Structure formats: structure tokens, C-alpha cells
Amino acid sequence: YDAKHIVVDPVMVATSGSKLLQDSAIQILTRQLLPMAEVVTPNIPEAEILSGMTITDAAEMEAAAKCISEKYGCAVLCKGGHKVNDADDLLWRNGTGCTLSSAIASNLAKGYPLDAAVERAKAYISGCLSAMLDLGKGSGPMDHMFALRGEFVEH
Asked: How would DSSP label each residue in 99-152?
């Protein structure tokens, strides 16, 4: 379809550590989808799988992002947390989450350059998280509509 600005959240391993994809699906993801992506947004466990590396600190996070970028020919936004890098994300591209990847893709579609698209997406996520509902146990639902008429809707 000659799609532009493909952003892929690999959704292989949940933040809780639960495996979300079968091995056969991971093979299809890495062989067919990731090479078409402009940006891949793995969390730390997913970055470990995609790079074949162990990540315990910020330097290893950067090395894994570089490895993934070189392997698949795309930019990598390695999502922090998991007791690594104080939850800071790292953008690696040649030459830098579901909601996060969608927000990045939306900003790219609006014509923002990659750095600005990621910056705006992270600001949007911060707003969603600050407005989230505290329900039950675990991570509560984000309020995706917190700025319905705000800066994130406008071009």
C-alpha cells in the first residue's frame, strides 16, 4: 500500500513481564513488519529480545537501540522504566507503547519531524498519565481525552 511513517509497537512482552506473542508471530514481526517501520517502540524486555542483549543500564539501553536500528533499518524509541534509566525513553535513529506509538504516528502524519513527533507524543502521554483513573490494582487506565480541545488535537 506504500504506507508512509509506519510506527510499530512490537507488543511482545507486557510491562508485567508476561509474554504476549508466540515465537512464530515474533518471527513474522521481525522478518516482515519491522523492516518496513520508520520507528519501532520496544520496552526494555522487548528491546532485549530484538537485540539479543541484556539491558541493565542506560548504556546497554543505547547499545540495544543501536543494534535494533541497524538490524531493521529504522529509528528506535526504547521505552525506559523496568528499573533501567529512571523511566527515561531513548530515541535512536540512523544518522534516534501502544498509546505512545500511536501518538508518534499521529504526529508524523501531521507532518512533524521525528524528534518533534516523539517530544509531542511524550508530552501527550504525560498528560494522559496525570489524568488517569485509579481503579483496582496495577496500572490504571489513562485518560486519552484529557486534552480533547488542546494542543495535541491541533496541527
From this structure: HHHHHHHHHHHTT--HHHHHHHHHHHHHHHHHT----SSSSPPP-TTTTTTSTT
Beta bridge partners of 7: 39
pTM of this prediction? 0.65
Among 125, 129, 127, CA closest to 103: 125
CB 72 within 8 A of CB 93: no
Crossing angle of helices 44-51/58-72, nearest 10°?
Answer: 50
Local confidence pLDDT in tens for the 155 residues of the chain:
788 889 999 989 876 778 889 889 999 999 999 999 989 999 899 999 999 999 988 889 889 999 999 999 898 988 876 566 555 777 776 554 567 778 888 889 899 998 898 888 888 877 877 777 666 665 556 666 667 667 776 66
Work out the end-to-end distance of the chain between its first and last CA atoms, rounded to an integer number of angstroms.
Answer: 25
Place of cell 504525560: 126
HSE value, Cβ hemisphere, 13 Å, CA-based, for 60: 14
